[in-house]
Specification:
heterodimer; A: 275 residues; alpha+beta; Uridine Diphospho-n-acetylenolpyruvylglucosamine Reductase, domain 2; Uridine Diphospho-n-acetylenolpyruvylglucosamine Reductase, domain 3; Enolase-like, domain 1; 5-stranded antiparallel β-sheet; 35% helix; B: 159 residues; 5-stranded mixed β-sheet
C-alpha cells in the first residue's frame, strides 16, 4: 500500500497549474483533497509521474451567488457544504448529499471539483449535479470554458478534460420557487460507495431524474422525467418509463439490479412529492 | 526529497520526505510517534485518524509533502485535552477496547464527534463512527463509552 514514486509541485495559481500540466511528461495529475487519488496511488491502480497540488489556490475556495445561480469553487469540501458554509439555494439538497458522502474524516478534505473530475461511476456529486443541470467550469491557464456535466462525464473515470485543463468550479442554475427534490442512496454500509443513487428535482415545471452506480457513467432518465413532468402519471406508467430508461442503458441488467435501481428512483420520487 | 515542516503536537518538526510518503509514515517513521496506527493504508479503516489544522483526517490519505506548514495533532498530543481525558476514562470503564489497535483512531474521531455534536445519542454515534473499523469489540462498548463521555461533558457544560 505504498505509491510508486512521483514528483510533486505546488501550483499557486490556475495558470501555474496549467503550465505544470503542459510541461509534464507522460502522466501528470492534479491533486486537491486527494481522498480518492491517494488511495488509488497507494493501491497502484493509478500511477503518475507528477502531482500538481492545487489545494492552496484561494480563488478556487470561493463560492458566489450570481443572478443565474450558484458558482461553487472546485476546492469547496464536502464538509464545507455539509456544515452550510456555502449558500443553500436548493432547499437543503446539497447539504443532504454532502453529509452522506463517505465519512467525516474524508469529507473534511475531499472536494466537489475533485469528485467531478475523477468521475467515479458511483460518486454522489456527478449524479446530483446532473439532476440540477450544472455546468462544469474548466480552465487551461488564461482561457476558460464551461460544459454541461452530462456531456463532461464520458465514462468510468473518463471526462472531457484536456491534458492541460483543470476543473475550477461548478455553475449550478438557480431554482424557481416551486423547486423540490428527492434523494435516495443504497449502500452496503454507511459511507460506502453507492450500489444505486438517484436524485430527482423539479423546477420550472420540468423534472429531471439522474441515476448513478448503475453503469460506467451517471445518466438522466428521459422517459421517467417526462412521465413525472406530466403530473397525472399512474404508478404503472411511471414504472414502465423507469424500465424503459434502465433497459436502454443497462443491456445486461439482471432482475435484482432492475429492482434495486427502480426502487431507488421511486423512493427519491416519493421524497420529492412529499416535500 | 522535499523539506516538510509541521507544528506537531505544538512543536515545530522538520524532515526531508519523498513526495509519495504519507503523513502516517512521516509521523511513525520520521517522527517516531507510533500511537497513529496503520491498518489498511487506503482510507477504509480509520485507525490512522489524526487532526490536520484541527480537522480530522486519515493520515494514510494525506501526503506529508501537502502538510508543509500545517498543524498536526496525533493521539500523543491530547494528553492534557479535557474531552480526551473524559473519553479515555469512559473507554476504560466501558471496556471499549480489546486489542487496542483501532483505539487511537476511535479516540481521535470520538473527540471530533463530541466537539461537533454535543451529547450525541447512540444512533448518531454509530453513524458518525461508521468509518472506524474495530475487529474485536463488536462496537457496542465503544458506542456506550462515547455516549457516556458526551453525557458527562454535556452535564459539566450545562448543555
Amino acid at each position: 500500500m505504498k505509491s510508486a514514486k512521483f514528483d510533486y509541485v505546488v501550483a499557486n495559481t490556475v495558470a501555474e497549474a496549467a503550465a505544470s500540466l503542459t510541461s509534464a511528461g507522460a502522466s501528470a495529475a492534479i491533486i486537491a483533497g486527494g481522498q480518492s487519488l491517494v488511495p488509488m496511488l497507494n493501491l497502484r491502480v493509478a500511477a503518475v509521474d507528477l502531482l500538481v497540488d492545487i489545494s492552496g489556490i484561494e480563488e478556487l475556495k470561493t463560492t458566489r451567488e450570481t443572478p443565474a445561480g450558484l458558482l461553487i469553487g472546485a476546492l469547496i469540501t464536502h464538509a464545507d457544504i455539509e456544515d452550510g458554509k456555502i449558500p443553500d439555494l436548493f432547499g437543503g439538497l446539497l447539504r443532504d448529499v454532502a453529509a452522506g458522502i463517505s465519512y467525516r474524516a474524508i469529507r473534511n478534505y475531499g472536494t466537489i471539483g475533485g469528485s467531478v473530475a475523477l468521475a467515479d461511476p458511483a460518486a454522489d456529486w456527478p449524479v446530483c449535479l446532473m439532476a440540477l443541470g450544472a455546468d462544469v467550469c474548466i480552465a487551461a491557464g488564461e482561457t476558460t470554458r464551461s460544459q454541461p456535466i452530462a456531456t463532461f462525464i464520458q465514462g468510468q473515470y473518463t471526462t472531457a478534460l484536456d491534458k492541460n485543463e483543470i476543473v475550477v468550479g461548478l455553475d449550478v442554475p438557480r431554482p424557481d420557487a416551486q423547486f423540490s427534490w428527492g434523494f435516495r442512496k443504497v449502500v452496503r454500509k454507511s459511507g460506502a460507495f453507492a450500489d444505486s443513487i438517484a436524485v430527482v428535482v423539479q423546477r420550472d415545471g420540468n423534472v429531471s431524474v439522474a441515476l448513478g452506480g448503475a453503469v460506467p457513467r451517471p445518466f438522466l432518465l428521459a422517459a421517467t422525467a417526462r412521465q413525472l413532468g406530466d403530473g397525472k402519471t399512474s404508478d404503472g406508467a411511471l414504472r414502465a418509463a423507469i424500465t424503459q430508461d434502465l433497459t436502454a442503458q443497462m443491456s445486461q441488467a439482471d432482475a435484482y439490479l432492475m429492482r434495486l435501481h427502480t426502487s431507488t428512483i421511486l423512493h427519491a420520487v416519493r421524497e420529492m412529492r412529499s416535500r | 526529497m522535499k523539506p516538510v515542516t509541521v507544528e506537531l503536537n505544538g512543536a515545530k518538526v522538520g524532515h526531508q520526505v519523498e513526495p509519495r510518503e504519507t503523513l502516517a509514515d512521516f509521523l511513525r517513521e520520521r517522527c517516531r510517534l507510533t500511537a497513529t496506527h496503520l491498518g489498511c493504508e487506503h482510507g477504509a479503516c480509520g485507525s490512522c485518524t489524526v487532526l490536520v489544522n484541527g480537522k480530522a483526517t486519515r493520515s494514510c490519505l494525506r501526503l506529508a509533502v501537502m502538510c508543509d506548514g500545517c498543524a498536526v495533532q496525533t493521539l500523543e498530543g491530547f494528553r492534557d485535552d479535557r474531552v480526551m481525558e473524559v473519553l479515555r476514562r469512559h473507554f476504560h470503564e466501558s471496556h471499549a477496547l480489546q486489542c487496542g489497535f483501532c483505539t487511537p483512531g476511535m479516540l481521535v474521531m470520538a473527540r471530533d464527534i463530541l466537539l461537533r455534536l454535543p451529547r450525541p445519542d447512540a444512533q448518531s454515534v454509530r453513524k458518525q463512527l461508521s468509518g472506524q473499523i474495530c475487529r474485536c469489540t463488536g462496537y457496542a462498548n465503544i458506542i456506550t463509552a462515547v455516549v457516556a463521555a458526551g453525557r458527562e461533558i454535556g452535564n459539566a457544560d450545562g448543555a
